[in-house]
Amino acid sequence: MTEGAERKPARVVVADDQTVVREGIVMLLGLLPGIEVVGAAADGEEAVRLVAEVAPDVVLMDLRMPRCDGAEATRRIRAEYPGTQVVVLTTYADDESLFPALAAGARGYLTKDADGEEIVRAVHSVLSGDAGLSPSIQRRLLERLTETEARPAAPPEAPDGLTVRETEVLLLIAEGLSNQEIGRRLHVSTATVKTHINNLFAKTGLKDRAQAVRYAYGKGLVRPPAG
């Protein structure tokens, strides 16, 4: 008997707020070898409750859901039921989705264009103690690692309660970048950039980008060019 035949099916819960998508994933998983679907949840709260009830091996977790999003549900599951692993299965591969999910304890991350073979591989990878990441997500993590190593260290303490990301946006404003250029540099949407700008303006009392540039220099976050 082969090793694949000996391995017991992985017991999986599917969490996705879109009924058609959730039912489609359940149907697909039902056709795949080595997978047994033991429950389906319409949001993060229901996912956590199902984990408590049926103790699955893995939850395939969507991220953007009502009541309790996927990152928070992942955090709760990993804290309260460490025997259950989480693989994110989502439409979104941007940094604002990816890194909070991994920080919350997800061991795998796939986008919804993944095929059945990729899903099975990710599920069994996380059960073996490995990461279940799609090739595109692996590339993004390597890119982010390279960017982090190349980027100057952020100030030890950002002024006025700014977050690290808000400080990054401020520094890029000081470089003269537009919202679109900032979004490309940080691999986030323009709407996300606008949110960060609104937050940092509210915290600092700034009213426009010119004031933001003066503020960055005044706080020593940016140094005037030499000469």
From TrEMBL:
SMART domains: HTH_LUXR, REC
PROSITE patterns with a match to the protein in the record: HTH_LUXR_1 (PS00622), HTH_LUXR_2 (PS50043), RESPONSE_REGULATORY (PS50110)
Lineage: Bacteria, Bacillati, Actinomycetota, Actinomycetes, Kitasatosporales
UniProtKB keywords: DNA-binding, Phosphoprotein, Transcription, Transcription regulation
PANTHER family attached to this UniProt entry: TRANSCRIPTIONAL REGULATORY PROTEIN NARL-RELATED, TWO-COMPONENT RESPONSE REGULATOR
Domain Response regulatory stretches: 11-127
Ranges for domain HTH luxR-type: 155-220
Pfam families with a match to the protein in the record: GerE, Response_reg
Keyword Iron-sulfur among UniProt keywords: no
Protein name: Response regulator transcription factor
